[in-house]
Amino acid sequence: MNIDGLFCLSLSVFVVVNSFNVDVKNTLTFSGPEKSYFGYSGILQDNWMVIGAPKDNLTSESNLVSPGVVYRCSVDFTVSTVPQCTQLPIRTPESHTQDNQFLGGSMVDINGNIVVCAHLWKIPGFVEYTVGRCHVIKRTNVDTNRGFPFTSSDLYSGNRFIAAFGMIGFSIARSKKRPVAILGAPGMNEKGGYVSFNVSQTGYHIYKAEDGQDTKSFEHQSYMGYSIAVGHFSGLSSCNNDHILMGMPSFASSTDGHVGSVVLVCGFDQNMDISKQFFGNQIGSGFGYNVIVCDYNGDGKDDIMVSAPFQYLERNPVATTDTGAVYIFLGSGNMAILNPINATLSGDNIPGSRFGTSMVNLGDINADGVDDIAIAAPYEASGVVYIYSGKSGEVKMKYSQKIYGKNIDSGMKNFGLFISNSHDMDSNLYSDFTIGSPIANKMILFRSRPVVVVTPRIQILPSPIPLNSSALDCSDGSSVEPCTSVTICFSFNGTKLDSVDKIEVNYHLNADTDRTKQRKSSRVLIVYNSTAVKELYRQKLIITKGRQVCDMVYIRVTAADRQFFASLEDDMVVQMNYSLQEDSISGQVLPVLNPISKTIVSDKANFQTGCKGQCNPDLVINLQTQQHNIVHGQTKQLIITVVLENRDEPAFAPNVIVKHSNNTRYVAHRALLQRGSVPVVCKEVMDNTTISCNCGNVLYQQQKAIFHLIYDVSIESLHQGDLNSTDILLNVELNAVARVPAGVDNNIGNNAAQLAVPIEFHSLVQVTGKSQPEQGFVSFSTNNLSFIHTYEVYNTGPSPMVTSEVFIALPQYKNHERVFNGSSIKIGTSNNTTDCTLLPINNSTVNPNINDGNVITTPSSTVSTVIPVKDIVCDDIYDIRCLLIRCSLQRLAVDRSTRITVLFELDATKFSFIQEQSVYFTTTAYVFPAETDFPFELLRNDTTKVTSILYPAKTEHEVQSINLWIIVGGVLAGVILLLVIGLVMWKVGFFKRKKREQVNEYKRKSNYYEKRKTQRLEIARSKALSKVMSRSDEVMLHET
Questions:
Q1: Closest alpha carbon to 667 in 624, 623, 621, 708
Q2: How far is CA 82 from CA 529, 905, 997, in A?
Q3: Residue closest to 562 by CA, chosen among 479, 680, 674, 645
């Protein structure tokens, strides 16, 4: 019966991660009634499919309560209309036994006959017993069905209920040798078992755990037959039938608890002896929930996969419950040896996903000769199915494709609770399959895409690339920049490609990729159809099966400049990556690229340099200067001459790196082209102490690069802050290195040069002094005279006076008598950088032959005058008659001074005068450079004297008087003389003004006054006329 409006066909497109050959852009989505569990099971056959909805209602039997329905749906990829799905009227005569029987809970295809089971079917007369029942849908007549003849006599055996709660058909598999359906019966006799049902004959056989000799392995309520699979495992003694694998997810051992188990028995053997048994390793993991047999490593021997969907991760059991895992046991050809793999398949290890809830051996869906597996995690998001592609000689632990149910349909729930076996539905020789979401009542048909192996090829010609390519086809004819041609070719082949005549390829071409990967600029452009681009994107290049298709592009160097020549050692790499065109075509699936295909290919070429292989220049560098030193504060610039010479093969893009000390600053450079230098360009790099100089694009043998580097060596550059010998460098140092990025220098020993220019400090010092007071008067009542001698030490430059010494000599003897004691001397300074010390007093005996008296007698007839008759002074700092003060001066800046003050008292009793006389007491200051390793030079050793004059006390009051009448007479005489001179000047006409009379006479003769009068009248007339015109304009305006 047709049920309109309950089914729909949709084309779903979604993004897939790690996509391989399951087409996710052209899917068919079948939808069933709400709460029907549509999609719980399914079978694919040619151009139609059977879908189970085990909780649906038969429209023709309204008296039945959710018996379950099997639908037959046609499949047509050429139309977009909704396909017609029909309910198959599968029922038994007894109505009450079919309520909630879960028809369509499992099904299997046996040679075109579909066995559909209802494992909750109840036998008439015993409605409390869920025995289970199966039906056969024949290919020749889909409306005909028959049930396998289970009778009430099978309920009992020896007065015991054997199959009363058997749930026959809970799981289902097919024999590999016979047209027999193998039906799991997990409730059989409380331990489990299976039933074999031959679809071509009448009859069935029950195999229960109780029949086995090793009954201790069949525990109560272990649910043997919960999952079931069939395989062939050589070495099983006396077993020529199928080997049947059954899961027991509730199996509990006496020691480990409910860890689950899987048993392998010889099929159709009434003894049910266990040939092999596997156990889970976590309580409650559900080990045995699902089992499949496959050849996952392509060795031709059956392997076993067992799921445990409730398993947690050992590293964090609480947070990772129900993550799920699938165990692999590799067949070896010997029943006794099934090798477990240490690792398990687990998808993306998502907690709560229940990975392994359903899984199916899809067979070889990618045509590589090895089985592929689909494993569902229906509780990861809205459900996920992982595709594991088997590989020959390898156990792949990573999935090849992950299909998200939410991207098929936003309302999807528990996507993957069912996965069907595979079948080629579109005749492209690749098997297809369905994935069910019974909670959402949907079944989705996925198709497998043909797999092609693409052979790409890329070639650069000519290679090496000539530096002058003007004669090549790749040249544009107007430039000589290097160029070359690149050929890109494709062909393809594969297995089962009868439906594939051609493919479309998109490719992306990059040039100079080794440099761009290092974030360096590309040196070339790609030219295609006369258009130059950095990258070429070519779409939909059609490749016909059995033929090779090629494209050609040109590669051109953008500019043969210094940057290019500096990179000649770098290969020019051209890289192409490609993919197949993915545009969807309604009703068709496009081929997919085999993972073994290389999707990235490249070729490389170097540039011709004229050298035999790698160029080997010999660069020699030298640093020179005509400035032998730098005078601090005087020298402003330092000029360094750099000479770079090549003595061997060409040096491409030679470079000079000059690093200078941090007490100077780079100012400029100047190439000495007049001396035959190549052009040079310099610039600061890095930390402002490094100069990089590019010396042309190429330096041939015997060519030179000669240039000046100019540095600032002013005070601001030489040092910062306070001058201190530990803070500054005493040399300006330069280190130069010649480099060639393309090639290897023959002799690296002459690639470096050093130069150090010493810094010297020169100072010119001026010393001045004064005495306070300048004179003193000696009387009989005076015992001591106090004086202060002050010396000012001034640095005129050009350099700071780094360290110097000032010696002040004070004479201490007069006529062999001390004129003062050292204890009376006080020394002061104006700043803390000057430190003065009075050296120990020399008490040695004075030579009596030295005459230093101060008395000179003049004849009595001569007028007395105050004249010095004797100086008390030291000859030098070594004079033993003198006291010596030593002052140390540190860091005296230019145009700065320091003051030294010496306070002393003279003993007045040591001085005597005859007539009128005076004594000059003189101290002397000497400036010397201090002994130090510091490069300081005092340009002049300055010496300064300060004198205090001593007079007898009587000269203080002698002032010669002057007669007042002499002053008055002089003033009167001056006034009379001034009057006489004025009178004489008046008489001669000096004060008479003739110029004015001459001007007036000129004006009279030239009619000046008449002309002036006429001009005034004209001005007055003009002003009057202007006023009249203004009034006239106003009148005209008012009239208008």
A1: 708
A2: 48, 131, 134
A3: 680
Q: Distance between CA 973 and CA 800 in Å, rounded? A: 62
- 217 falls in which pLDDT band (50, 70, 90)? low
Both tokens of residue 984? 């004489």
pTM check: above 0.70: no
What's the CA gap between 415 and 323, in Å, rounded?
16
**Spatial distance between the Cα atoms of 884 and 838, rounded to a whole number of angstroms:** 6
> Residue 1029: CB partners within 8 Å, gap ≥ 6?
none
Dihedral of alpha carbons 76, 79, 80, 82, sign: negative
Contact 568, 609 (CB under 8 A): yes
Contact 841, 922 (CB under 8 A): no
Query: Distance between CA atoms of 574 and 225, rounded to whole angstroms?
Result: 60
Measured CA angle at 283 (ends 279, 285), to 5 deg: 75
Omega within 30 of 0 (cis) for the link into 462: yes
Contact 226, 258 (CB under 8 A): no
For residue 800, say if its preceding peptide bond is cis, omega within 30 degrees of 0: no
The two tokens of residue 92 are: 């038994």
Token representation of residue 646? 């090549």
Q: Which tokens is 721 given?
A: 């802050």
Instruction: Tell me 384's DSSP state.
Output: E
Q: Is the Cβ–Cβ distance between 389 and 378 less than 8 Å?
A: no
Q: Is residue 521 within 8 Å of 495, Cβ to Cβ?
A: no
For 1010, the 3-state DSSP assignment is helix
Measured N-to-C along each axis, helices 995-1005 and 1008-1039 cross at an angle, to the nearest 10 degrees, of: 60
Maximum Cα–Cα distance across the chain: 184
On the CB side of 955, how many CA atoms lie within 13 Å of its CA?
A: 18
Domains and CATH numbers, the chain: 22-448 (2.130.10.130), 452-605 (2.60.40.1460), 619-717+725-761 (2.60.40.1510), 765-842+869-952 (2.60.40.1530)
DSSP 465: B
Give the DSSP letter of residue 1019.
H
3-state helix vs strand vs coil in the chain, percent to 5: 10, 40, 45
End-to-end CA distance of the chain: 105
**By mean pLDDT, which of 320-334, 598-612, 872-886, 1018-1032 is the weakest?**
1018-1032
Where residue 494 falls (left for φ over 0; alpha for ψ -120 to 50; beta otherwise) is left
Q: pLDDT for 230-254, tens place per residue? A: 998 876 556 778 899 999 999 988 7
The pLDDT of residue 336 is 63
Nearest to 558 by CA among 539, 577, 572, 579: 572
Give the residue-averaged pLDDT of 262-268: 89
CA distance 754 to 734: 6
Q: Map residue 750 onto helix, strand or coil.
A: helix
What average pLDDT does range 290-313 have in this prediction? 95
Give the count of alpha carbons within 13 A of 223, CB side only. Answer: 22
Amino acid letter, residue 241: N
Q: What is the mean pLDDT of residues 458-476?
A: 87
Name the amino acid, one letter, at 809.
A
**Lowest mean per-residue pLDDT among 9-23, 68-82, 829-843:** 9-23
Q: Which residue has the higher pLDDT, 406 or 138?
A: 406
Cβ density class 841-869: b for 16+ within 10 Å, e for less: eeeeebeeeeeeebeeeeeeeeeeeeeeb
**How far is it, in rounded angstroms, from Cα 909 to Cα 1013?**
98
**Could you tell me the pLDDT band of residue 377, with boundaries at 50, 70 and 90?**
very high
Please report the pLDDT score of residue 922 as a whole number: 92
Query: Distance between CA 1019 and CA 1023 in Å, rounded?
Result: 6
The pLDDT value recorded for residue 1009 is 66
Strand partners, 666: 711
